[in-house]
Design goal:
The structure holds two protein chains of two kinds.
Chain A: H1 2-7, H2 14-34, H3 38-62, H4 67-97
Chain B: H1 2-9, H2 11-14, E1 27-29, H3 37-54, H4 61-83, E2 90-104, E3 107-119, H5 121-144, H6 151-172, H7 176-194, H8 201-232, H9 237-246, H10 256-272, H11 281-284, H12 290-299, H13 304-311, H14 313-316, H15 322-342, H16 347-367, H17 371-398, E4 408-409, H18 418-432, H19 439-453, H20 459-484, E5 490-491, H21 514-531, H22 534-542, H23 562-587, H24 589-601, H25 607-613, H26 618-664, H27 672-707
Parallel strand pairs in B: 1-2
Antiparallel strand pairs in B: 2-3, 4-5
Helix pairs in contact in B: 3-4, 3-6, 4-5, 4-6, 5-6, 5-12, 5-17, 5-21, 6-7, 7-8, 7-12, 8-10, 10-13, 12-17, 15-16, 15-20, 16-17, 16-19, 16-20, 17-18, 17-19, 17-21, 17-22, 18-20, 18-21, 19-20, 19-23, 20-23, 23-24
Classes of the chains: A mainly alpha, B mainly alpha.
């Protein structure tokens, strides 16, 4: 599938978009799982978000349906609000423990 | 084979194809409507005593209410007796009670049990002494129970009234359901009154014991009534006896459910009348106040078993082994209880064992086909045993609860005790069967002589046992009298001394006053009168369902006819017993102790006095064979409940979710990344499932298709 996509670079098809979307999502996921820095982890979630958004736009265009794009506009709006909230949270958490590592916040186990 | 064996057991019964004799059967009448009051007055008395309890009456009022109403009930019984015509028994309808009909197998089945009085001579005989002695003993109790005036007094008389109501229902009822109501009612009243001193643990235990042992008998009676209903389709005496008169119930052809009836009724009778193996409750029942012992546990209630078998006499003939078993149980009980009575020291307990022993005579009489002898002995015994208990009560009352015959002596020389001493003397004479001047002599002779006449399995041996028992009886009766009433004056107060009115000071026995003495004299006169009532009882029994032609002796020579030599032999036994008692307990009081010590010193004979004093260890035997296994079973079930049901099933199921949770607990480790991994893993799993779903469905289909 990957080779087929490279061979058909001349004409960009739906699978190219899906591939990009999946790539973004996986990069975000790997980053989220491997990194400990809360800001980086937050960025990684944004990355996964955008991967999903690309898939929606691509499918919206493919099916000639505007709702995919409309949905993405909503997602961007929400993501902006969420970014403000999340970064504020990170700042607060940092003030408490003087570190950005997520590992220090593990009191809610069991 | 079985038939010929049975023929040697009780040939007379076996030789008949159906009922031996036609018994007179009562017919309904509209007259005597007022007779129902005999039943209702004690019930009214209970209600009034209850009212007294509610209004907290602090006088002897409840006692007088009870005496008045029971006395009226007795007068009505007398009136009924005088207006009753012989050979014309009647059923008097009082109240419609149970009248149920339903459709069963193509015909309408009717179950009728009304509050109706079945009045024949047997009923009247019983009712006369039940209400008569009931009234007199209630009168005695008005003085005897005066220490408890107030709550206890009211409770006592309410119990007596309940008892009289239940006993009247038992005797008067015209059907077995009403008899059963009375049967349970007297059992309940007995429990109530034995446990009168409910703060005393031994009284409470005795009450429970009486109730529980009686349950065993009651179970037999209930089942017997059911089998009668099952086989004869009725519980009414009239219909039942008419069916038996009509015949068709041969001992040869009857099914097991018919043959079981006499044994089940017998079990009930043995429970209520304290016979082997269910007699153990009666000696303990002496924990109740003495008037209760006199009325319920000597004169009236314990004869209910005799009444049941006498009333159901035609039914008892449904199996040829039933009556011989009754005879043997009666004879053995008489002997066993007499031997225990000889070695006791508590006066009331001695009289309790004598009651068991005398009841044994009554069952012996029923078993050897002299229902007259049994009924006559019930009648005479009711009087003299009431006297004996009431005198014992007077002693107990006067000596602050002292009942040990070693600790009171010379009563007849003390001022104010003359009537008690001499009425007790007469009571002991009756119990001993002293010739000619006592009622017990005539009734006991009748039974023992008949045991020698009636052919049956070992009946001659039973007659000998009866004679030996008569000797023992005379001995233990006069052991009491010679110890307590004769000899040098000496007494020790009982345990109630400290809280009586004599508190602190020196103890003075207080002699009974007018009422107690009056009652003792009246009942003694009744006992004397009953000597002359033998023919009347004979005629009465002949006019009831207990009628049975006792076999006659074959020869007429002196030794061929036991009825002729019995008075001499029985007199010899009675007088011999009295003389023995006189030697050991009056003339030479230390001899008894010396003999006992001699027996105890010898290793071979040591068991005899020990076992007799310890009541042959029957209580211990029951403890080991009945109570202990039940106790172990109870504890086993307790452990089963605690460890299997509660711990394993209930707690185990409750622990299951927690154990499940513990398995998944490590997932919640607080590390953000691991949550993320599991989310991603879950997502991946779902994705794989979605992608592979068509293949999966295809695979399932192939498997199912292959199987189907």
């Amino acid at each position: 599938m990957m080779l087929a996509a490279i061979e058909n670079l001349g004409s960009i098809t739906l699978s190219h978009y899906i591939f990009t979307s999946a790539l973004l999502f996986v990069i975000g996921l790997i980053g989220f799982v491997t990194r400990r820095n809360m800001i980086v982890m937050f960025l990684c979630t944004e990355l996964m978000f955008q991967g999903a958004a690309i898939a929606m736009i691509a499918f919206g265009r493919f099916h000639l349906n505007a709702s995919g794009q409309v949905f993405v506009i909503f997602i961007l709006t929400v993501a902006a609000a969420e970014a403000a909230l999340a970064l504020a949270l990170v700042v607060l958490l940092y003030r408490r423990r003087e570190t950005l590592s997520a590992e220090v916040w593990s009191e809610l186990k069991e | 084979m079985l038939g010929s064996f049975a023929a040697t057991i009780l040939p007379i019964v076996v030789s008949s194809e159906s009922a031996v004799v036609d018994v007179p059967v009562a017919q309904a009448t509209d007259a005597f409507g007022w007779a129902a009051l005999i039943l209702w007055l004690p019930a009214l008395s209970t209600v009034l005593c209850g009212l007294c309890a509610v209004m907290k009456v602090k006088s002897k009022l409840p006692g007088w209410i009870t005496v008045g109403l029971l006395g009226t009930s007795f007068l009505l019984t007398l009136a009924l007796f005088f207006s009753y015509e012989y050979e014309n028994p009647v059923i008097i309808h009082a109240l419609q009670w149970l009248n149920i009909s339903w459709n069963g197998e193509g015909e309408t089945v009717q179950f009728i049990a009304n509050f109706a009085l079945y009045v024949d001579s047997l009923t009247l005989l019983w009712m006369l002494f039940v209400t008569g002695l009931g009234t007199l003993i209630a009168l005695y109790a008005t003085e005897y129970m005066e220490v408890d005036v107030g709550k206890g007094y009211t409770r006592f008389f309410a119990g007596i009234s309940v008892f009289l109501f239940a006993m009247s229902a038992l005797v008067l009822g015209d059907n077995l359901v009403m008899l059963y109501l009375g049967w349970e009612g007297v059992g309940f009243a007995s429990y109530w009154l034995i446990g009168y001193y409910y703060k005393k643990p031994s009284a409470v235990a005795a009450a429970k014991k009486a109730f529980i042992v009686n349950r065993i008998g009651d179970f037999g009676l209930a089942l017997g009534i059911y089998f009668i209903w099952h086989n004869f389709g009725t519980v009414e005496y009239r219909v039942l006896f008419e069916a038996l008169n009509a015949g068709g119930y041969s001992t040869e052809t009857a099914g097991w459910s018919v043959r079981a009836i006499p044994y089940l009724l017998m079990l009930g009778a043995f429970g209520k009348s304290a016979q082997l193996p269910l007699y153990v409750w009666l000696p303990d029942a002496m924990e109740g106040p003495t008037p209760v012992s006199a009325l319920i546990h000597a004169a009236t209630m314990v004869t209910a078993g005799v009444y049941l078998i006498a009333r159901m006499y035609p039914v008892m003939l449904l199996d040829e082994y039933a009556l011989p078993i009754v005879a043997w149980i009666g004879g053995l009980t008489a002997l066993l209880a007499a031997t225990i009575g000889m070695a006791q020291y508590d006066i009331k307990r001695i009289f309790a064992y004598s009651t068991i022993s005398q009841l044994g005579y009554m069952f012996l009489g029923l078993g050897v086909l002299t229902s007259f002898g049994a009924a006559y002995h019930v009648f005479t015994h009711a009087f003299f045993k009431a006297v004996l208990f009431l005198t014992a009560g007077a002693v107990m009352h006067g000596f602050a609860g002292q009942l040990d015959l070693r600790k009171v002596s010379g009563l007849r020389h003390m001022p104010g005790w003359r009537i008690v001493s001499w009425t007790m003397f007469y009571g002991c004479l009756c119990l001993a069967g002293f010739p000619l001047i006592t009622n017990g002599f005539y009734s006991k002779d009748e039974i023992i002589a008949q045991a020698f006449i009636t052919p049956g399995f070992g009946f001659v041996a039973l007659g000998v046992i009866g004679l030996i028992t008569a000797l023992f009886t005379a001995y233990y009766a006069f052991r009491v009298w010679f110890r307590v009433c004769a000899g040098p004056v000496h007494f020790e107060p009982g345990d109630d001394h400290h809280n009586g009115e004599h508190g602190g000071g020196e103890f003075h026995p207080h002699a009974p006053r007018l009422v107690i003495n009056l009652v003792l004299v009246v009942i003694t006169i009744g006992a004397i009168a009953s000597i002359f009532l033998g023919d009347w009882v004979l005629r009465g029994v002949g006019d009831s369902t207990a009628v049975y032609p006792s076999p006659h002796a074959e020869g007429d020579g002196f030794w061929a006819n036991p009825h002729r030599w019995m008075p001499w032999v029985a007199s010899a036994a009675g007088i011999g017993g009295i003389l023995l008692a006189w030697y050991f307990h009056l003339a030479n009081r230390s001899a008894a102790e010396r003999m006992k010590n001699a027996l105890l010193a010898n290793g071979l004979t040591r068991w005899l006095p020990t076992a007799m004093e310890n009541k042959w260890y029957v209580d211990e035997l029951y403890h080991a064979t009945v109570r202990a296994p039940l106790w172990i079973l109870g504890h086993f079930l307790n452990l089963f409940d605690r460890y299997v049901v509660d711990m394993f099933l209930v707690d185990g199921i409750a622990k299951l979710p927690r154990a499940l949770a513990r398995t998944f607990q490590p997932l919640q480790n607080g590390i953000l990344q691991s949550y993320a991994v599991s989310m991603a893993g879950g997502l991946a799993l779902v994705a794989v499932l979605v992608v592979l779903m068509p293949q999966f469905v295809e695979w399932v289909r192939s498997v199912m298709g292959g199987a189907g």
